[in-house]
Amino acid sequence: MAAQIYSGEKYASRRREISANLAKRPEFHDSKPLPFMTREEKILESSRKLTLISKHMNEIIDPSDKRELYHLNCEVLGIEGNPMALHGDMFIPALTAQASDEQQEKWLSRALRREIIGTYAQTELGHGTNLRKLETIATYDVDTQEFVLHTPQITALKWWPGNLGKSSNYAVVVALMIIKGKNYGPQTFMVPLRDEKTHQPLKGITIGDIGPKLAYNIVDNGFLGFDHYRIPRTNLLMRHTRVEPDGTFVKPPHAKINYSAMVHVRSYMITGQAIMLAYALTIATRYSSVRRQGQIDTTQPEVKVLEYQTQQHRLFPSIARAYAFVFAGAETVRLYERVLQEVETGNVSLMADLHALTSGLKSVVTHQTAQGIEQARMACGGHGYSQASYISEIFGVAVGGCTYEGENLVMLQQLARYLVKSAGLVQAGQSSKLGPLVAYLGAKSDSTSLIDRTPTPGFAEYVKTFQHIARKQTLKAAQKLFGFMEKGDTREVAWNKSTVELNRASRLHTRLYIVEAFVRRVEEVADPRLKEVLTDLLRLHVNYELLDVAAYALEDGFLSSSQLDYIREQLYFYLAKIRPNAVSLVDSWEFSDRELRSVLGRRDGNVYENLFAWAKASPLNKTDVLPSVDKYLKPLMESARASKL
Ligand SMILES: CC/C=C\C/C=C\C/C=C/C/C=C\CCCCC(=O)SCCNC(=O)CCNC(=O)[C@H](O)C(C)(C)COP(=O)(O)OP(=O)(O)OC[C@H]1O[C@@H](n2cnc3c(N)ncnc32)[C@H](O)[C@@H]1OP(=O)(O)O
Ligand SMILES: Cc1cc2nc3c(=O)[nH]c(=O)nc-3n(C[C@H](O)[C@H](O)[C@H](O)COP(=O)(O)OP(=O)(O)OC[C@H]3O[C@@H](n4cnc5c(N)ncnc54)[C@H](O)[C@@H]3O)c2cc1C
């Protein structure tokens, strides 16, 4: 099953080898539990481990393999980030996609050797979503052939970029490019921030950390201001866009080609989110198979809480989602790598499809992942609330994904733009022009679903039902938009009046895509035992997801209430059928205890012994009487006693 999750036996067994290798190297392990460390201690500890990784990487992984590096990072550094997180996630991808060969020779090679540390500085105090209104300006000075970076007011300060505050000495900075008074929109520049020897900020640079956050606190998200800070013309990233010495602007083949680092993260983060969801579910499912509370049959002993149907309903649909997301994530990574190669040859035709797909997936997957992790926390009762479970940290890190790389409700609208265009083609009788991701919009719907009406063993009737729902909502929302425009609203005003409905269409389209990705993967499985278990999980998934959106199919009679009853019964049937495999389904992700960092979710199942040992290790328990008691509580109680006398 691990080979299914990790897209092949090769990587699944490499993961095992890497974990086994690390198990023998205590210097790579956390020196104490992360929840007992201050932020400063965590950053120091993470930097220590990062340095070890850099030194010994070649002994443990193939450094050219991104997935091996990702696994090494998960095991050793963990999810709370590290001082070079953005270096790998965005700085290197930005240089790879946007720097010219010459620039890559100069900077990418140094970045890959870790001679310099970089980040991606785009968001500002006043603007994150609306990139066209960023306020940092890069004005071209023809005389000196330099760009002058400047922060004209406080809202123009770069704010949020990861590892900008303290760790990075370079950044790919996004600024509005002004040449001879003309605004050429957001462009990307390679900018030195700190002296390479002393690490002191360079003259003209104001820089620092923005302070603690909900989670992800090992990362020094930072602020950055420029005071008429000059960089050479050749620091504009020039793979696709160019500015000649005389200030002539050479347009790229696609207007949004500079957004590639964002698309990179959106493509990869689907897998990252699936893994964080699977972390939380591993912890909660293992714990639920140890925790005994209450009885189902009063003549029998107390049961494991995993026997309760409510507990299964709380956890198993999310287990199915984690599998669905990892399968969909593998597809987005393949598409991203393909588009990256095609762009190299000048073919930008798939950029819009990739952008639409990843915008929708990013939004739906992060939202459902956060929901699933929070349910996993509650499934652990009181112990879920303790940081010993580590689920609160997993939640905090994962939920950041709802905001970064484009706020979810904004990114759903990006997909909606694509859907509306497709709906326009359908309306104009040009369905043959629809791309493969939206071809179903042009198909004719049956009048009713055949779920429970026809003995089809596969998933075709479910897929058709999801397609019907997504098609109906897309065409309806587009119609609403066109209707407002026909009545005289501008497109922008009409758009704003339709966005709740448009975003619903985007979610339904994305949920259909996720179901289809799951079906595609299960159909490929050859081993009959694995196929049976995955088919059960997929059955659970389609029934659960369909119930969740059933209102759309009930309102036009596509599904009847008796079909709904059938879907519910199927859901309950598969909850029970999956129960014996539940622990194996989470164990199949093969997370080591080191990687999970959860006292509650350890493989040995010794929950109570482990919790007690953890509590005893708490720094508060080093002494029996705390200084706060000596200083305040004792005098308080003493004076209360004295006044009574
Ligand atoms: C092996 C490894 C496995 C797992 C790895 C796990 C985890 C990975 C990562 C971990 C994450 C760690 C850290 C996270 C760091 C987070 C970093 C950041 O947050 S960086 C900052 C991100 N900022 C944003 O995302 C800003 C969001 N805003 C935008 O993107 C844009 O402003 C906008 C909303 C898209 C609008 O842009 P704009 O105003 O320029 O464009 P229009 O709306 O007018 O649209 C015009 C036209 O262009 C199309 N378009 C927009 N973007 C793109 C694109 N990228 N590609 C292609 N086309 C694009 C748009 O759809 C319109 O098309 P039209 O309808 O006109 O055809
Ligand atoms: C953990 C974390 C790490 C980050 N790392 C980086 C980084 O490395 N580099 C970097 O540059 N940035 C980074 N960011 C910033 C991040 O990318 C932005 O915060 C994000 O893109 C959202 O933008 P915003 O903050 O401007 O939100 P806003 O746009 O202000 O959103 C506020 C509200 O307004 C709504 N809204 C905004 N515009 C519209 C619209 N057009 N239509 C409808 N509703 C709208 C949103 O839906 C939301 O409800 C990070 C953020 C976080 C939380």
TrEMBL record:
Q: Could you say which residues bind FAD here?
A: 123, 162
Q: Which domain of life is it from?
A: Eukaryota
Q: Which GO molecular function entries does the Swiss-Prot or TrEMBL record give?
A: acyl-CoA oxidase activity; ATP binding; FAD binding; fatty acid binding
Q: Where does the record place the Acyl-coenzyme A oxidase N-terminal domain? A: 1-117
Q: A GO term (biological process) for this protein?
A: ascaroside biosynthetic process
Enumerate the subcellular locations listed in this protein's record, separating them with semicolons.
Peroxisome
Magnesium listed as a keyword: no
Report domain Acyl-CoA oxidase C-terminal positions: 460-638
GO CC annotation: what is one? peroxisome
Q: What protein family is recorded?
A: Belongs to the acyl-CoA oxidase family.
- Identify the residues that the record assigns to the Acyl-CoA oxidase C-alpha1 domain, covering every copy: 259-420
- Tell me, in one coarse class, where this protein mainly resides: other
| Keywords, alphabetical | ATP-binding, FAD, Fatty acid metabolism, Flavoprotein, Lipid metabolism, Nucleotide-binding, Oxidoreductase, Peroxisome
Put simply, this protein is called Acyl-coenzyme A oxidase
Please state the pathway this protein functions in, per its UniProt record: Lipid metabolism; peroxisomal fatty acid beta-oxidation
Q: Does the keyword Nucleotide-binding apply?
A: yes
Organism encoding this protein: Caenorhabditis japonica
Q: Which cofactor does it need?
A: FAD
Residue numbers annotated as active site: 405 (proton acceptor)
